[in-house]
Structures are given as C-alpha cells and as structure tokens.
Design brief:
The strands form two sheets. Strands 1, 2, 3, 4, 5, 6, 7, 8, 9 and 10 form a ten-stranded mixed β-sheet that branches. This protein is α+β, with helices and mostly antiparallel strands. Helix 17 packs antiparallel against helix 27. A hairpin with a 6-residue loop joins strand 17 and strand 18. The protein is built from 31 helices and 21 strands.
C-alpha cells in the first residue's frame, strides 16, 4: 500500500473544519469548561480539606512529626535516631511546666530543643534564633506579653520557676521569638541544654516534672510518608531490642503517633470508603461530561456526514477521519481546560473555606497542590477523548454513497409511519421525531436525569440530618450551666462548684418547666474490685502508665480503685440510658442500689466490655470522711484518718450523657440519687452542673440572660443550649446544601446545555423538512405545538427516569447511611423532582419556540430552495 505524507493536509482540514463549526465549538468549549470545573473543584476540595484538617490538627496537637518515642534515655535516643527508616528527626529534653501565677490560664512547657525539633512543634523563632548561650531563652509573643517583655531580641526576661513548691527566678536574654498560633493548646519556652541540665542536677523531679518526663528525651520522627506510622515505630523499636506493645515489659518504650495525619485513624474500610466516594463522584462527572460532549459531536458528525463522505471519495481513510475529529477535540481541550481548572480551583477553595468554618476551625489552610491540576486535566482529557470516540467511528465507517443519502432514522420511525396512515396526529409526529435518533434522545434524557438525581440525593441527604439525634449527642436539656472548666474536661475540685445564688438567680427567670442538679464527689472514694476488673475500665494510655505496684499484682488480687460518683436529681436522672437492667428513681433514693456507668461510641454502642461489674453484683465503696495530704504540691501523700464503708447492689448499667459527665473517659463511675450522695459525702458532694427545660416562648429570653450573666456578671461560668447546637446544626446543613446544590447546578447546566443543543441543532437541521410540512398545509402554530411537544417529552421522560433512579438511590444508598452516620435518618422528599419537572416543561416550551422563530425568519420558499 502506498503511504502518502499527508499529515499537514489532515491538520489543515481539521483546523478549517474546526473554524467552520463555531456554534458547535462554543457549546463544546462550555461543556469542557464545566466538566473540568467539576473535576478541579472536586480534587481541590478533597485535597485541601485533607490538608487543612491535618494542618489545623497539627497545630492543636503541637507538631507535624509523624510520630516519636516518649521519655527515652540518652543511650536509647542515640540508638533510635540512626535507624534507616527515619528521614528526619528532632529531639527535646523536658525540664518542667509553668502553670502558677500569671501562667494559671496559659500552660507553658519548658524544654531544651534542637532546631529541627522546634520547627516540628511550629515553634521555631521567626525573629532571632534558638538559645545558643546558657542564659538565653526563646518563646512566643503571648508569653512575652504575659511577662511584660517587648518583642525585641536582646531584652532581659525574668522567669519564675516553681520547684517542689518553691519559686526560683532566673533572668535570661531573649534570643528569639515567634507569633503564637491561635490553634495551639500550649506555649513552648526553649532554654539552653546547659541550663536545663544544671537545673536537673540541682533538683530531684517533683510531680509536675515527673508527669512530663523531666530529664528524659522525646524523639520526634518524620518518615518518607505518613503511611504505616505505628508499624514503622514498632520496627525501629524492635530492631533496637525494645517492645512497644506490652506496657508491663521491662524493655517497653512509649510511642506516640500524630493523629493529625488522617492515615493514622482511617482504617482500611474507611480509606476504601473515601476512595470509593471520590471514584463515584469522578464517574458521575465523566458521565456528565460524556453525555453532552458525545452528543455535541454526534450532532456535528450527523450534520457534516456528507463532508466526511466527500473526503472518503478522494481517498481519506477512516483512521485519518478519526484523527481529524480527535484533533478538533484536543483543540477544544486547549481552549476549555485552563479556564475550567482555574474556575474549579477557585470554587474548590471557597468550598474548603466554607466547610472548615462549619467544622469550627479558625482558619482554612489552602494548598496549590499540582495533583489538583494534573488530575483535573487528565480526567477531563479522558472524558473528551472518550466522548468523541463513537462519533469518530461513525464518521470513519460511513461510505460515500451512504453519506449522500444519510438521514437519521430508526425502527421506531417506521412503526409510527404506519400509525400516520390511520390519521396524522401532532403528538405522533413529535414522538416520531424523537425516535429518529434514539441514541441522541437517550443521551439527552440521561443528561437531564443525572442532574435531577444528584439534586435529589443532595436534598434527601440534607433533609435526613436529624436535629434531635445531632443535638441529643451534645446536650440533653434546653440549658446546662456550670463552671467553665467542666466544658474543658477539667472539673474536679470544690472551688469549681456552682454557687447557690447562681441557681436562685436562674430560677427567678420566667418560663422554666423543670430543672435539676448533677452532683460530683470531689472527695476521696474507692471501690473494691479485682485487678482484672480494674484493668478492664482503663484506656490504653492509662495502661501504659500503670503503677508498678498494680503491675506486680495477680489478676484475681483484690484492690481499692478510685471511683467517680455522680449524684442525680430526678430531672437529670431521666436522661440516663439504661443498657442492662432498670432502676426507678424511688428505688435509687432508698440508698441500697447503685448504677454502674459506661460510655458510648459515636454510633451509640455502649462499651459494655469496660464495665467491671455485672447487674446484681455487690460492690463495697469506701468513703474518706477525714483525710489530708502530707508533702509538697502534687507529690503529697494521701493520709485517710477516718472513713466508712457501705455495700451496694449494682441495680443497672447505664450511660450518663456526655454533657452531664466529666467529659473525660477511663475509670470507675457510679450514679446514685443526689440525696444519697450528699448523705454519704457531705460537703464533698459538689454541685457540678444545673440543667433546665424551658417553655418554648421563653427560650430567647433565657438565652439572652445567660449570655449576659456569663460574660458580664460571672465570667467563671459558661452554658450550653440546644439553641446554640441547633444553630450549628442548621449551619452545617446549609453548608452541605450550598456545596451539593452548587454541584447539582453545574450538572443541571450541563444537562440543560445538552438539551438546548439537541433542540436547536435539530430544528436547524430540519429547516427544509419543516418548510415541506408548511407547504402541504401545516400551520406555524401546529409546527410550534409539535416542537413544544418534542421538547416537553424530553423533560417528562427525564423526570420519569429520575423518579425511578431516585427510588433506587433511596433504598440502596440513603437507607444504608443510617447505619454509617449517627445523625442521619433517611427521608423521602418530592420537592426536587417535581420542581425540576416544572423547569423542564418551561424549557420545553421556551427553547423550541425561540429556535423556531430564528428559522421562521426565512420564507418557506427560501428554505425549500436550500441545497442539501
């Protein structure tokens, strides 16, 4: 076969054919832009939300290291840091923490750190440098403000250290400082290694120093990536002869994994679910783009089929015609991809900022990740090339003779022609016209249906957000009032008690239906149990720091475990969720029965395996009546001078709502009637929180009252309300509707664009045919009626298909979400589907009429004389 060098000719033909199809190009470029916008926005939002969540959490956690080893010796540190898995490491040595006086509300950790370690904590000086000389210091601007020191390197700064209850002041030279991150939970104060070692040689570690691991090293590590962090740490430890699994082992090393990295707390199922969700969205976008771009090229090829037939007559091969169409598609990509990627990136950043604000994050950390644009470009290019593949095959396979005689037809057309013999009807003619090209009709209907189904999915999902489930997880009654520390999970002493005058003032407000107190035992109480029962109640981190004395015990040995006791008035008692057994309040008031408390996970499943007792067991509680601490600070030893015991029956196991608890987990918890607790504990029965339910019309007034009272009259108090959580819930719901609705709008625009393109090009291609109908007596009104019926039929069929697909979506997806999302209840809603029906019917009237008016500008004779 003779090979001819005609690539330049094919390129020239493609370019000139491209220039001649301006209307098609405009529609196709818009379709490419919208498709690329969807891909780019999806990838931007997915990558930026992950990045922003990790960055925000890192600043709360206090570092970007993947993980590390806690409290290791010099020898252990030197051995660990040489492991080949480690890409980068930073080390720091703890001295103490400042938490008295002016630091009572700002925890400050005092350490030595190398430069990399400081950078890993986001606490490397941006002005000046890390301490180099013995009496140099670096810290953040908030601490400088607390100490009244100007933000200037070289300033003298006096720091009051407390060792064993004694204050020791030391004066340093400020070597560097940085702005405190608002998300940070603690501040860091960096000292020289020489000064830290000197203080450690002078002082035996007190309780604060011991709790932080004073004198020992923390080794923070970055690996090649954030995958398998825990396994990598285990590997490093095992290769050096250490164990990270058994806290009781002599060679045990405590590790820490940075849970800011989503890969550390996303299991395989969760990761697959995330990947699956993105894959489904990508497939939907591919389908959305395919439906319109394919249809545009199908219509274009049908209109130009005689042109391709003529090319065949002069020797153009099918392969060359495919290349011609593919080149035109690539030119459309060159025009559409950049605009779509820019618009999608900007839209994705807006979506990220909106979502992060609704997640109560102060700041969204945006990223210009190249994979956003690479992914969007590749998927969009794939969609365009896939869309033009079938039209290219049609153009390449048609023979010159077929091209000259080509008319879109189908078996449906023949069937309808037989009906016309019995009497022509406008509706039959409209249906016959739709049946001329079944594939085109199906593509348009699918494109329209996709937007309706997506809109239904978004609307049904947001409608399924159950406010009662959402609010009930965080707050029980209409209002809860307590010391601020309770909301920070730091309640535990008598000086945090709610004053009686506060309760009296609250009770003086109008509209209170019911109210009650929750008491907490701030004294000393122990429960008798075996070691095995006690270990069952502890969290993993508590097992790691278990006392040596307890480690040495046998599992069946009896011990006295510290117990948390809650006293409930009748109103808070009604919020107990009984999971085993049942006790009424009157029985609880008798004082012989006690309720064992456990917690629930996010999906409402109680941790029954954490319960040390079974219903019906006897438990002996030892109440300390007279006791004192001997010694300094937290090192003091507890001496109980007088105590009494009482044996109770476990009447039930129940869940105390998190809002009515200490809001922290791990330990032995019991509930009893408030009068019983006060009778056993006296003054140690501390008023922890006060809850109340309001008449509906009195809620706004109470909200305003408590807002003013906690801000202006008693700032040590705070409150929670159903109203504030309801507002948060509605904000989250609006956020999802906005994001999902925007995506639905873009898909709907693609569908409508496809619909408009099909109607307009169809009417323009049938100009001569419509003129023939008019020439044999069909009026302009009848023609418009036929075209309107064609356009409306598209919409009606699209809605019927959407209804069917929505039923499938409801049953297969939304119903299953009830088991995955604790705040979701599937609901069936009709508004989106019927709302879109009216939109489609309106378009079915307006678009055909406008298109026909343009055609109507030519007379019947002019249209009949047009060359085919």
């Amino acid at each position: 076969m003779l090979r001819v060098k005609n690539k330049k000719t094919i390129r020239r033909l493609a370019d000139r054919s491209f220039a001649a199809n301006k209307t098609r190009n405009i529609m196709a470029v818009i379709a490419v832009i919208l498709t690329t916008l969807l891909f780019s926005a999806l990838f931007t939002a997915a990558i930026s939300i992950k990045y922003s969540t990790e960055q925000s959490t890192m600043r709360q956690v206090g570092g970007y290291a993947h993980g590390g080893f806690k409290e290791v010796t010099d020898e252990q540190k030197e051995a660990l840091i040489t492991h080949p898995l480690i890409e980068k490491y930073g080390t720091n040595k703890v001295l103490t923490a400042l938490q008295d006086g002016i630091f009572s509300k700002e925890r400050v950790e005092v350490r030595y750190s190398d430069d990399i370690g400081a950078d890993m904590y986001f606490c490397k000086p941006t002005t000046g440098s890390m301490p180099g000389e013995k009496m140099e210091l670096a810290t953040d601007t908030r601490i400088l403000d607390l100490l009244g020191v100007p933000h200037k390197v070289g300033e003298k700064i006096t720091v009051p250290f407390v060792f064993h209850g004694e204050t020791r002041e030391e004066t340093f030279t400020l070597s560097g400082f940085w702005e405190r991150d608002e998300a940070a939970m603690v501040s860091e104060m960096w000292l020289s290694e020489a000064f830290v070692d000197e203080m450690l040689s002078e002082y035996e570690p007190d309780s604060i120093m011991e709790s932080m691991g004073a004198g020992l090293w923390n080794v923070n590590i970055c690996f090649k990536n954030s995958q398998n962090i825990e396994e990598n740490l285990r590997k490093i430890a095992e290769d050096n002869g250490y164990d990270t699994e058994d806290p009781m082992a002599e060679n045990y090393l405590r590790t820490g994994v940075n849970w800011a990295y989503l890969s550390t707390h996303t299991d395989t199922g969760g990761a697959l679910l995330n990947i699956g969700a993105i894959a489904v969205l990508c497939m939907m976008i591919v389908l959305t783009g395919y439906l319109i771009i394919n249809n545009i090229f199908q219509i274009s090829v049908s209109g130009d089929i005689r042109f391709y037939g003529l090319l065949k007559t002069i020797g153009t091969t099918g392969r060359q015609i495919k290349a011609l169409i593919r080149r035109q598609a690539l030119k459309l990509c060159i025009l559409g991809l950049p605009l779509g990627m820019i618009a999608g990136y900007l839209a994705g950043n807006q979506i990220t900022s909106l979502i992060m604000r609704n997640m109560s994050e102060e700041k969204a950390y945006l990223t210009l990740n190249p994979w956003i644009f690479i992914g969007a470009a590749l998927f969009s290019l794939f969609t365009v090339l896939l869309s033009c593949r079938k039209p290219g095959k049609i153009a390449a396979s048609v023979s010159p003779v077929e091209a000259v005689r080509y008319v879109e037809a189908s078996p449906l057309g023949k069937r309808l022609q037989r009906k016309e013999k019995r009497g022509s009807r406008i509706l039959n003619m409209a249906l016959a016209n739709l049946g001329r090209s079944r594939k085109r009709t199906i593509l348009v209907i699918l494109s329209l249906s996709l937007s309706v189904v997506l809109l239904y999915g978004v609307s049904a999902f947001s409608a399924g957000f159950d406010m009662n489930k959402f609010v009930g997880k965080f707050v029980t009654a209409d209002y809860l009032i307590a010391n601020k520390d309770l909301f920070k999970s730091m309640f535990g002493s008598k000086n945090q008690e709610l004053d009686k005058t506060v309760i009296q003032t609250v009770n003086s407000q109008e509209g209170i239906k019911e109210a009650g107190l929750v008491y907490y035992d701030t004294g000393i109480t122990h429960a008798s149990m075996t070691k095995e029962q006690y270990l069952r109640t502890l969290l993993a981190i508590q097992l790691q720091t278990l006392d040596d004395e307890i480690r040495a015990m046998n599992d069946n040995d009896w011990m006295e475990a510290a117990a948390d006791l809650f006293g409930l008035d009748e109103v808070p008692f009604q919020y107990l969720d009984f999971v085993e057994g049942q006790v009424d309040y009157e029985e609880l008031k008798k004082g012989d029965t006690i309720i064992q408390l456990v917690h629930k996970d996010d999906y409402g499943v109680p941790y029954l395996e954490k319960a040390p007792y079974s219903v019906g067991d006897k438990v002996t509680l030892s109440f300390a009546d007279d006791y004192e601490y001997i010694g300094d600070d937290m090192d003091a030893e507890l001496i109980v001078h007088k105590s009494h015991e009482k044996t109770y029956t476990i009447g039930a196991t129940a869940v105390l709502p998190n809002s009515l608890s200490l809001r922290r987990y791990g330990g032995v918890d019991f509930a009893m009637a408030s009068d019983v607790l006060k009778g056993e504990k006296g003054d140690d029965a501390t008023r922890m929180c006060y809850i109340l339910n309001m008449e509906e019309d009195a809620v706004p007034a109470m909200e305003d009252f408590l807002e003013q009272y906690t801000k202006e009259i008693d700032p040590s108090l705070d409150f929670e309300s159903k109203k504030s959580y309801s507002d948060q819930f509605q904000s989250f719901r609006r956020m999802f509707l906005l994001v999902g609705g925007s995506a639905s709008l873009v898909v709907a625009l693609v569908g409508i664009l496809n619909y408009i393109n099909a109607i307009v090009t169809g009417i323009r291609a049938r100009r001569r045919e419509l003129a023939v109908l008019q020439s044999i007596g069909m009026t302009g009104r009848q023609l418009k009626e036929m075209l309107i019926l064609e356009g409306s039929t598209y919409g009606i069929l699209a809605i019927l298909l959407s209804l069917l697909l929505s039923l499938v979506l409801q049953g297969l997806v939304l119903r299953q979400l009830e088991h995955l999302l604790w705040f979701f209840t599937a609901k069936w809603i009709w508004a989106p589907i019927f709302g879109m029906l009216f939109v489609f019917l309106a378009l079915g009237v307006v678009i055909p009429v406008l298109a026909y008016r343009i055609v109507e500008r030519q007379s019947v004779v002019e249209r009949l004389r047009e060359a085919e």
